[in-house]
């Protein structure tokens, strides 16, 4: 049986909607977590400079996890690819923001953050599908 053209369009529209809304939720989570981290760093007497990149990667990963979870809950299926797409899109947004601000990024840090965000988004998507 042959599918109609309109049926193909409807298959990817909910996935795109889920990825965009999940990414927006992940960006909001990153914003809140970075505000909390900034407050914690300001309230400390000394800021450990070695801890800042690790906190940024941790916050990015948690945001991607939340983005994947939200996308899977919205999409209701295909949690792993939806979560990975959210992690990738959120990574691209954060990388663009980093380039726009002129912050120096090493290639190793770039790849590490990409892998962490892809894996965290996928895990979030998988966890979001498992919930009823």
Structural features, described:
By secondary structure, this protein is mostly helical. The chain has one domain. Helix content is 84%, strand content 0%. The longest helix has 39 residues. The mean pLDDT is 86.
Task: Supply the key terms.
132 residues, mainly alpha, 84% helix
Write the layout of secondary structure elements.
Layout: H1 5-43, H2 51-75, H3 79-101, H4 107-130
Helix pairs in contact: 1-2, 1-3, 2-3, 2-4, 3-4
- Amount of helix: over 70%
Oligomer: single chain
- The tally of helices reads 4
Largest sheet: none
Proportion of beta-strand residues: under 5%
Brief account:
The chain has helices at residues 5-43, 51-75, 79-101, 107-130. With 132 residues, the chain is mainly alpha-helical.
